[in-house]
Specification:
homodimer; alpha+beta; 3-stranded antiparallel β-sheet; 16 helices; DNA-binding
Chain lengths: 372, 372
DNA sequence: GGTTAGCACTCAAGACAGTAGAGTGCTAAT
DNA sequence: ATTAGCACTCTACTGTCTTGAGTGCTAACC
């Protein structure tokens, strides 16, 4: 896996989509759909005879064989070996997803159940990240991935310094995107900066000065500001430095706070029984910066994105599909949520689920913003 | 898996330990040690001849066979089938861990590397939980589990209410054990309680009143206090209610914030190649309250605990071992860290690693407390 | 001309038998 | 007490055969 592989995680999927926009006869479409849907369920290459039986097609197996051969020539199906049934190729799935799939909205009871679960949970902390991941993987029987909604760069919003009775001091930093981080301050190295009369008033004064000066700045801007224009009060420099560090760490953290769930579902798929492949996938998930690379794709146009098998240029992902969508407020804080499963994935289930959850989170975030 | 299984997760391991305190001849001990260590490395049942060769034993294979037969009679070894080599039983591992193992301290370079990694990380947020899990699994090639250090019940420590310029209000609650939670407050339903003159001073006053009254209380106590002695100020009741909710949620959360890492290592072990077994284990880890059940065991006496195979009364765990230790300040906030691997685990590596990390965290927490 | 029945062909997977090798347990000699 | 030797056991591997699902092609059919 070369480095360049990581640079462009997704081969331009527009071209893929175009290539898939073929003119198929009605019969070919029916057969392709049947093959995909059967294979998704059974994981077994599907043969012509089985197909007519199971789907009560009004033609004979020989006819289906013809159609299959045509579809194979077009690159939509493939053959594990001469005397085996057909399996959809990545392109076949692509065509299916784009033009064949009957996409159902999530049914009412599913929607209600999901809503109910979210109503039980505080939106403030990370609990709902986990909930989203859990719902997503439970509902699609795939692995799920959720990243928190954050701006690309953390920006200073509002600062508060708190003197605690017996346990030091606390810096509470509200970021421009609404996230909150806190940081304990040691007394060592700080006490002497406060001079004789210590305590909350002095801290408030410092916080207020910094709030005025740092508003909207990112880590680098804060650093520059501290260097170019030395603060008149030493305490401000001290706290400013900590703010800069916190912002920097926040930038790093975007990557680390990714939550995943339901990996078991993937492990249980027959195609990964061997185990070796999973290793590679898990590694990629761990180095979860790969999600970062989806962000440009996702910001270009919103909605649900599907990346199938080899469309994904990360080698380890050649046998899995990703269905994901952005959520959050476009300009400001953007998060990603999605599922990862074998290319043989139940797209008609995964796509609406991802769409619904992204919309639901949007709604909740929006409402939260109104309340505040 | 009955419910009663969950009630007593660990069959009393003192009895196990006693049964293992057998008088073995020097030869038997040598053979047992060799079998365990060889099997841990190779995962292949080990025969008498291979053993003499690999360990240059000064006796013949026939002699070793005698010893093996004796050990088998004692229940320390077992036989997959008639003509296969020997495999340690759970009891065999137990004996090995208790009296045969040459336990090495972690070597200097390992210790330094670990220390270095921890020096790079803020102790405040959850990042170091992940780091611990990562180091643990990386260093032992097993799955790792880390729970945050928390008191059994969350208790009120110190409260601060912050008015934010444009984004509502923030409640910052420092728990008695030093953890910090924050919570956004909606303006709706709060504004009218503050009367005409709003803003920071009023919030400070309310916080200060509540700090006086709620100090040290757990969720239930706060609730009672609110009901029995109605607050004179309505705003206090409002905020008090939110505090109670936050404490309750905190109590629930202990269970949920467990961090695991390195499951891949377990998946890669040949004994779990089948995949089916892993499913059960992952499920147990997910329902991570099982860790809670180790707490009593661990508080009884500190240090590293080892639970081997069927000593663990949770069915799904019959083929894995747990090596774990508590960390934190005994009376106050207690956390657990440990590794999970096949019973065929490198105990001489796992045990010192767990011990070292527990000690390291103790040290860091201690130092952090001093700084504050 | 599209559809279908029929047929020869292919290949994976399962059943079966035979073999090699590692291992055991026992006994008799050292 | 130890060990060499031997008969015995069982798994894992190998090669062969069979079965069955599936294909592609062709010739007959509507």
């Amino acid at each position: 896996m070369t480095d360049s592989t990581w640079m462009t995680p997704i081969s331009n999927d527009d071209t893929q989509a175009n290539r898939a926009a073929l003119d198929l006869s009605e019969r070919q479409r029916t057969v392709l759909r049947a093959v995909v849907e059967d294979y998704v369920l059974s994981a077994v290459p599907v043969g012509s005879k089985a197909l007519v039986e199971r789907y009560r097609l009004p033609v004979s197996s020989a006819t289906v064989r013809m159609a299959m051969a045509e579809l194979e020539a077009l690159g939509l199906l493939s053959h594990p070996h001469t005397s085996a049934g057909r399996v959809p190729s990545d392109l076949g799935y692509r065509y299916y997803v784009e033009t064949l799939m009957r996409e159902a909205e999530l049914n009412r009871s599913d929607r209600l159940m999901i809503r109910h679960q979210f109503s039980q949970v505080q939106l403030t902390n990370n609990e709902w990240l986990r909930l989203t991941a859990s719902v997503l993987s439970g509902s699609t029987h795939s692995a799920s991935i959720v990243t928190p909604a954050r701006s690309r760069r953390a920006r200073f919003g509002h600062l508060q310094l708190v003197e605690l009775a017996d346990r030091g001091r606390l810096l509470v930093l509200v970021l421009a995107d609404g996230n909150v981080v806190q940081r304990r301050l040691d007394r060592t190295g700080m006490d002497h900066l406060l001079g004789d009369e210590q305590g909350q008033p002095q801290l408030d004064a410092a916080a207020s000065r910094l709030n005025g000066r740092l508003s909207g700045m990112d880590a680098r801007a804060v650093r520059r500001r501290l260097q170019r224009a030395p603060q008149t009060e030493e305490i401000d420099t001290f706290v400013g430095e900590i703010v800069a560090q916190a912002l920097e760490e926040e930038d790093r953290l975007v990557v680390e706070e990714v939550v995943t769930d339901g990996l078991v579902h993937v492990l249980e798929q027959p195609e990964f029984a061997g185990g070796g492949k999973v290793r590679a996938i898990l590694d990629v998930l761990q180095r979860s910066d790969f999600l970062q690379q989806l962000v440009p794709l996702v910001t270009r146009r919103g909605g649900v994105h599907v990346i199938i098998g080899r469309e994904n240029s990360i080698d380890a992902m050649h046998e899995v599909s990703l269905v994901f969508a952005p959520y959050g407020t476009p300009g400001r804080a953007l998060g990603l949520l999605g599922v990862l499963g074998p290319t043989r994935m139940a797209y008609p289930r995964a796509i609406p689920t991802v769409r619904y959850l992204a919309a639901l989170l949007d709604e909740l975030i929006d409402q939260d913003a109104k309340d505040a």
